[in-house]
Design goal:
This protein is an alpha+beta fold. The protein is built from two helices and seven strands, in the order ββββαβββα. The longest helix has 14 residues. The chain is elongated, with a radius of gyration of 19 Å. This is Oxidoreductase.
Length: about 150
């Protein structure tokens, strides 16, 4: 298992990602001063965004079409999902902002041989242990043993 987004598992047999990008911002408010440069005050953390770049070879990854539909269904709910690496690192709860799909190299029936897509996520809150963390950590560790 590479990563879990809620109960969706990114792995080599299903859908794997080749690149993970993370962009974090911090907010600073400018206070104008007379006859001087502005003074800046730290106003807290800004957005934390993730982008997963994925490539699917449909001849090898047979469950990938079902996985893409599952990700789309998850995004349609608008709910936040826990994002967790296969190493056990928990990033927090994220929402799915966008999915861009490119399909190429088609079979005679029109099905793609290759699909590349990016999944854009935004962190909406941190994960706090004691809520559901112990159960999810245990569940993901079991899934890691399976996959």
């Amino acid at each position: 298992m590479q990563m879990a987004l809620g109960l969706f598992i990114f792995s080599l047999p299903t859908i794997s990602y080749q690149q993970l990008q993370r962009q974090t911002s911090w907010r600073h408010v400018a206070h104008n001063r007379f006859d001087d440069a502005p003074d800046y005050q730290y106003a807290g953390k800004g957005e934390d965004k993730f982008t997963l770049n994925c490539s699917i070879s449909h001849e090898i990854q047979m469950l990938s079409r079902i996985g893409l539909d599952g990700l789309r269904a998850m995004a349609n709910t608008g709910k936040p999902y826990l994002l967790m690496e296969g190493t056990g690192r928990i990033y927090g709860f994220v929402v799915i902002d966008e999915m861009n799909i490119t399909q190429t190299d088609f079979f005679p029936d029109g099905a793609p041989r290759k699909t590349e897509f990016t999944l854009s996520l935004t962190k909406v809150r941190d994960h706090k242990f004691g809520q559901i963390g112990d159960l999810l950590t245990y569940g993901v560790s079991l899934l890691r043993k399976i996959f």
